[in-house]
Design brief:
about 55% strand, mainly beta
Length: about 120
Amino acid sequence: QVQLVESGGGLVQPGGSLRLSCAASGSISSIRAMGWYRQAPGKQRELVARITSAGNINYADSVKGRFTISRDNAKNTTYLQMDSLKPEDTAVYYCTAILLGPNYWGQGTQVTVSS
């Protein structure tokens, strides 16, 4: 009942910035939290950041201080501002909507950090 579309990925140099967007549609009122995950080749998908409907925010230690998650409720959009990007941030980034029931996932957007 929730559809998610990520955008904003691309190629950036080390130290650069990107802002990812996640547009949600469907049963928006059922969403309890929004999160960003990423998956690099050969690695497990990992939580990057999460924001609850109450405004509580969690970050992975690896991105804390560099990434910022935020929501624009009027636009039904969740953002991930990524600053001071490192090559190890290269991954496919996925948006997820967390409901009382099963989670819903976007298709992912590729982020590549390279010189």
